[in-house]
Structures are given as C-alpha cells and as structure tokens.
Amino acid sequence: PPVEQPPAELLGFKAVSVSSADQIVVPEGYSHAVIIPWGTPISGALPAFSLASTGEDQADQVGNHHDGMHFYPIDGSSTDGLLVLNHEYIEPRFMHLSAAGQSLGSGGVPAFDAQVGRPVDEVLKEINAHGVSIVRIAKAQDGSWEVVQSPFNRRITGLTRMELTGPVRGSDFVKTLYSPQGTATRGTLNNCGSGPTPWGTYMAAEENWAGYFRNGATETNPAPREHARYGVPSANGRYGWELAADGSDRFVRFDASENGASAETDYRNEPNCFGWMVEIDPFDPDSTPKKRTALGRFGHEGVVFAPVTEGQPVVCYSGDDSRFEYIYKFVSAGTYNAATADGSLLDEGTLYVARFNEDGTGTWLPLVYGENGLHEDNGFYSQADVLVNTRTAADFLGATPMDRPEWGAVDPANGDVYFTLTNNSRRTEEQVNAANPRAANLHGHIIRWAEQDANHAATSFEWDIFLKGGDSGESGVATNIGYDPKGDRLDADNVLSSPDGLWIDPDSRVWIQMDSGATDPFGNCAMLVADPNTGTVKRFLVGPISNEITGITMTPDQRTLFINVQHPGSGTSGAEFAAGNYVSRWPDFDDSLPPRSSTVVIWKDDGGVVGS
Ligand code: FEO
Ligand code: CA
Ligand code: CA
Ligand code: CA
C-alpha cells in the first residue's frame, strides 16, 4: 500500500566521492585507524612480524587476506571484546623473501626446484596464514584500539584438528588415513564470509577450497562427482602444497588421487572433508572446531541466521558463490531454547535450496534422501551422499542457478532476507530469468525475499530485486514500498559494482561492500549504505588501490565499526612486482613491505552511531 508520509531518513552523513587514491576515505565527521595487519603477533611467544617470519611464527600471527568478521563483546562491553576474523587466502609472492625480483602475478608461488619440491617452511607459512584469528582488542584511554594479550587469543589454521559432525560424520565419504573412522580432519581453508550464531559462537565458511587439492584422475578412473562437480583440478593444487619437499602427510594429503589400497590408507577423500561451515567457540580456546555437515557442502560464501524465537527451529541461510550456483537455507529439527541452545542444533534438520519462480514467488526444495527422487534410482544412496554432493542434489531438484550468491543479511525490522549476487559475466540471453535478469551481468544485483507469514521455516516466499549495480542504464534501487524497475538510477553518490559483503545493522541500515575489478567509473572498491525505507543509497567508505572491502561488525553501542581491507595491491602485475613497483603500499607505505590486508576501525568524531 502507498505510504502517506515518507519515513525518516536513516543516513545522516554526506556521501563520499569515488576515489582512486591509495588510502581509506570516510565521510566528513568520521575518522579511521588501521589495526591487526597481516603478521601482527597475537599468541605464543609473540613473534614480531617481518617478511623473514617463519611458518611457525605465522601460527602465532594474524593470518592473511582478512574477510568475514564478528566482534564478541566481553561482558557486553563496547570497548573490550574478541574480534574473530577469517583469512580467506594468500598471495605467496607478498609473503616470502625468496619471491623478490621474480615476475610473479597474483597467486604465483616463488620458483622452486621441481626435483626437490616446494620449500617446507614456505608451505607451512602459507597454510598457517589461512584460517581464523581470535584477537582480544580493547579501546585505550586515548581512543585507539589495541591488541590485548589474552588466553583467548588463538590462531586456527589449515592444520588445526577439526571434528566432523552431522550426517556425514563416520560415512565412507570422509574416511582418510588421518581419520579412518571418518570423524575428524585437519584445518579449514578459504574462509570467506562468516556469521555469528544465536548462542555466541562463530561460523566460518569454506568457499573456494576445491582448488587447493588435486586429483590426478584418468579417463579410465575418473574423479568422483564429489570432486568433479566442485572443480578439484587434475593438475597441481593452487599453491602446490602437495609438492612440499619433505613429503609429509600434512602436505601430501592435498593430492587426492587414489594411491593406496583403500580410502582409509590414502587421501582420496580429503577434499570431502572441505566445503562445510565450521563452528568455532571463541570463548573456549581449547575447543575443537566442528564442521557442521548438515548445512551442506558447497562453496559456502558465509552464513546468516534468522532472528531466533523460543520454541521455534533455528534457521540460517548460505550462498554458494560460483556462477550458476544456488542459495540454501537450513531449518533445525530441534527448537531454540536460550538456556540450552548450542551447535548441536545444526546437526539435525532440513537443508533446502531455493527456486525463484518467474512470478515473484519462490519455493524451498528439501535436500532429503528418499524424497523427491533423491534416491537410488537417481544415484543418491544416503543422506550423507546427498550432503557431500549438495550441488548435484540441488541440480536434480531444479533449483534456480544464480549470479554468484555471496553474503546474506536479515532486516531486523521486518525479517526480509537480502542476498548479494555479485556478477556473472557468463550468463547468456537464453539463461536470463526473472531473478537473474541480465545477460553478461557485470555489475551484479541484490535480491530480497519475505518468507511466507514472516516465518523463516516456511517453504515458500515472495521475492523482488532490491538493487541493480552499474553506472546508469539498468542500475536501480527499490524501497520497502515496492520495486519499480524504472525507478531511481544509481548516481554519483552511490554508483557501485559487484556487491559482495552485506550486513544490516540494528536500525535496518543495509551495508553493501564491493568486490569489483571494474574501476571506471566506480573507483576503488567501496562500502555503501542503503536505507530500505526510502531507497537512499550513499557511499560511506572507499578503500585503497586494488583491494576489496569485506567483513563488517560493530560494537553493541554501534559507536565503533570494523571492516576489512582484503588484498590491497593485488593488481600488481608480474613485471611490476619484479621491479618492486607495487600498485599499492597500503597501509605501511614502506618500500620494504608489501601491501597488507588489515582491519579498519571507523568512528564518528562526535561519538554518535556510525552511519547515522
Ligand atoms: Fe570469497 Fe565469494 O568471495
Ligand atoms: Ca566475498
Ligand atoms: Ca567476491
Ligand atoms: Ca575475496
């Protein structure tokens, strides 16, 4: 229904302009500071950061390529808490002294003697730069945020022991030489987005894990679908960890080719131990992280929980960020009770995949063994099979292939669920559908839905498109009143491409983070804020050169905002790298140091709510 009076505007700041400078830009009246860059010592013997830091040092230092993040207050404080953040991946050339002078592009590893293998300490350092950091931080008297030495400080890495829980635990799919019972594995990798649970723990997503492995399958002995459908390569893994010179089990496991008598004697199943959501209790430093298999196996971008209600199931949403992949939700079998709720709620329940119908309605399709054809006749033999092969099962049910589902968020005011669809250059005119309306979708969009009767456990919903990226032409933004596809175009205050990180604050401001390679006319990757009531969108922050903005969390009083700057300077070409001409030197601006992924703290100079 039309509203008689426009709602009050949520966004009180003046939009910042696009920027191509090697710096952070925030609105007038705001300030920022950089904390915990890659290599900051947080635990153990507190090894000082340098490019000469060893693989063991790295296990006590903040990891690389900061991504999803959440602030866990200590006793409700807004000045003291645990900052928990993911480290998605690495740029080996920026990590090793041995890379100097070589022509290495983004992702390249320093040259090594193929007869000997990759230097063991380089491989160890790279694996230990992955995972999650738990860092206690506090606001000092002078207003700055400092790392606090604390027993909570912890690094979780690509080598940390993890438990497998849920229906896949103990199944034949996850038996390995490391865990012949199929109950455990080592490490978490490519942790992109994250999400806090309603009971105070942290979920880290495993996104582009497939490329870390290899399966040297042959035509006569092809890779199983649980490898092939996810893109496990037949050549070397992305950093060649399986080529480590010492041939030790912790590195050789990245070669998932069959090379033993059975699954219990080799690592053919190692990739099946990845692609999950990992639960970590930041307040229990001795706890073993748990891979919650009931939430499905895919390229998890992140997770967002719906608000919980006593006596109702717990519901969470997760996107699979790859071209033409799907959006999922999990509904727990058990119900929420504030006094007893814990991660075991995530071990039993129903995983659904979304179908977005052309008429603006949608359906959640259950991924349940034995139902809707997910049985032996169609190649599915157990619930573990359905979950290990989540993508294949979702294909079978006819889910809607999306333009790379990234982060989700829930509007606390009305329960609307928002998901970013970052881009999809490969969608053809024939593949266009109402929910993914643009062929060669370079700039992405944000889809939104309301579950039937505002019940997050419902199996049907109504959806619309909240925002289309781009500079003009087809760009646009909707409001809560209803989408007008000919409505407001994006303009100088808010032009954006490739929305990725997404968060809705307690006042319903929609924070949108860019991960875009397109700089003209968008400038460096930025963070914008939308008011879903009025449709206003304003650019709040711009990052340094060749970065993406990701990760977002606030203190409970909303006076301090934390975001991450990931991979600054990643566009440095091989020739520029060899010559020492990095396109960014943020944040150190020291010619002896590479650019470093870091967390940025932002506050309003008058002490007000950030974004107000
Ligand atoms: Fe790791 Fe989909 O961004
Ligand atoms: Ca992302
Ligand atoms: Ca992205
Ligand atoms: Ca990224």
TrEMBL record:
Segment forming the signal sequence: none
| Top-level lineage group | Bacteria
Xref: SUPFAM superfamilies: Calcium-dependent phosphotriesterase
The residue ranges crossing the membrane are none
Q: What is this protein called?
A: Tat pathway signal protein
**Biological source species:** Halopseudomonas xinjiangensis
Tell me the classification of the organism that encodes this protein.
Answer: Bacteria, Pseudomonadati, Pseudomonadota, Gammaproteobacteria, Pseudomonadales
